[in-house]
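**User:**
My hope is that you can spare some time for a protein that puzzles me. This is the protein in question:
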Amino acid sequence: MEVQQIIDASDLVKGVQGRCTFMESNIATLAMGCQFWKVRSDRGWYLRRFWLDIEHLCLRYVPSQKPFWNTSPTRVDLTGITEVRRWKSDFYQQIEKRGHSRRRLDSALTNELCFTIVFCQHEYNLIALDEATAEFWLTNLKKLVCIVRTVQHENQYWMWLTLQFRKADKDKIGALSFVQVQDLLERMNVKLSRKYAKELFNDANVNKNKQNGKQVLDCREFVQFFRVLTKRNELDEIFEKYAKTDSAAMTAEELRIFLSQEQFINVDAEQANALISKHEVSTAKEERLLTIAGFTSLMKSFGIAVEEHNTLFQDMNQPLTSYYIASSHNTYLKGNQLTSKSSVQAYIRALEQGCRCVELDLWDGPAGDPIIYHGCTLTSELRLTDVLNEAVKPYAFKASPYPLILSLECHLSNKQTKRLAFLLKDILGDMLYTTPVDDSMEMLPSPEALKNKIIIKAKKPYVTNDSELEENYSSDDDDGRNSSDNDNSDESPFQKKTPNNTVSVTMSGSDLVQEHKAEQSHLSNAVHNSGDIPVIAGTKEIQMPSQIMEQDLSNTKKGSHQDLVETMDLEDISCLSDLINICEGKKFSGFHQNLTTSRCYHISSLSENKAKKLIRGERSAFIQHTNNQLVRIYPKGSRTDSSNYDPAQFWSSGCQIVALNYQTGGLYKAINNAFFQFNGNCGYVLKPAILRNPEIVETSGKDEMRGNRIVRVQIIAGQNLPKTEKNVIDPYVTIQIMGHPADQYKFKTKQVENNGFNPCWKETAEFRLTVPELDILVIAVMDKDTMTENDLVGVGVFPVKSLKSGYGHIGLMCPEGNIIPCATLFVHVSIHEETPVK
């Protein structure tokens, strides 16, 4: 099939219609349309008619007829819809509380009437007039969106280009003028001189079509114009080197030689012909020849990592301690740590990204059920039942079948602790892992053995024969940090409450004074940096840690356990304790003490600062510790803006659960997302053998072992790099080796001015790596900005052990961690092994 046939503007529609024959009557009903209430949480309800425009693959609605109110878009492209789902409880409760249903609905508002269409960064929250209509539209829109995605994926690049053409065709005449083409190229980040663009435009206009006396390009002609424009000289050079028989085409034998010499892939003649048949789009494939267009398609199919590593390829039968686990910190937050909203959707997004450890900060709720929010702040509240019912239960194993860890930070009274245990068992049921542990256990179960199981991570009390609680409910990490640095996820859920329902921890007087001063200093800085926090009428009063510490210090003296025991029923203690097994939180007391008293099912939580200090001073002991126990790292308390830290520094020391703020984009979040794309994006990545085998003595300095692997990376060119806030970017590329302390390298290319479409660099970096098993390669595209901080455009991350030699295209992730459509870097990787020199 010719390229012109592939990219016809009607092909996407035809492809979708061809797959919708089984639901033609339903499509016709959707096309007739229906009235819905379109709801905005802050502005009320608006009755609008929605209908399906199948010819243009979009959902349309009638906008407001008020003057100056019809500027918002009146269509939603099906290609842009990411999800069609029921309302989330937090939004439903917000609308229901306002009582709008009594004025606008014949019957009471119910969740069965409500559904949401999510597209790009927006959503339409709709209410049907009856339940049958809501169910019909919800079900069929889901099917239709799924079909559109399937067809779109088949010819992603050509469909992408066609969609750009259709968006630019504002007059809907099926053609673009030269001015419209120029505007489209600018939006696609292509900057050309007017003279050169006009020459290409005239050459492409073979039919000499005109509109209003001006020449125009139809879709086929525009694609031809674009093909000429996107001619890639770097690929032409490679092609011409091997296409010796006919400079316009490569034979199967020449292809076989190229693959062997450049890509280190050995194929026979039959396999070479199969590749030609797959990638060649012209009639040349009938003669078993590969043109430059087919060669370009073939080259785009090559990456720089072993293909198998993008699938589930690792051994999943090792103990849980042998894996890196994708983890989130304060998962419920949508923004900063002090004033942002909490959302069920935040849990869903993390789980859909493959996160396998989410955090729940639990506090006593006014209705007798625990609530989730960031205590002592202005963050909003969520009901635990909503999170369990609408996020954890339906989405726990949607992206991965491997175990999900619920990290509980409990600040609950005895009564609501018991309620917590009931809700976990009642809602999650058989999904919970409830197998008890004992001191004879030598290693944790494997991810394979824990498939489709939810593990509760928390700290539990121990009761002696005299029914006295041991001193086991102080904070995990006594490193002198301020209270915001303090992670309470492993504090006992049975801590004594002060009369105003705040947690009273057991400390000596000197400890309290030191921590009180640290908290005052930190909170002062936090308020100064974030501005004054207003006290809003009708909201709960925020109690600062300094107030908490002044309440009743006499109740915090060591040895006052009897008061606590008297308020607690042993049955209440065991109700949650029975759910805590292979992830029992323990305060970290040093490596030497842990060797004698710890068990494999114990887990410690450390702030990033404390972990850095331990790694610098006792790296080998840290690695040995992670061979037997899980370790969780969380952001320091001063990151009130929900910024992230470098996770690679902790991965290279064996830390399994490195928790990041999933709501915050940026380089480190993108690194985390890209790292866990390996092994099928299942949320578990097997640690290198050097971190799993205690017999291996790890090298910590460059002098002990020198360069057993040389990695050479050439950055050749970029394609379709997205614009940032500027019209056209000035891109440059950074290459960084992260991981082992001896293998810290950085490299930066020159910047290319005003070209994000096809910038060319052809610059090479070489790294001599000491412990490549622990290293990851980070390739980032940056936009040079002379006025402000340089912007991250996209990033690719690869474990060095997964790299392969040859040419390849790197797909880029945006700062939020999503794949950027069609944006790639063309690179060449060369790997050489050397015998270590001692």
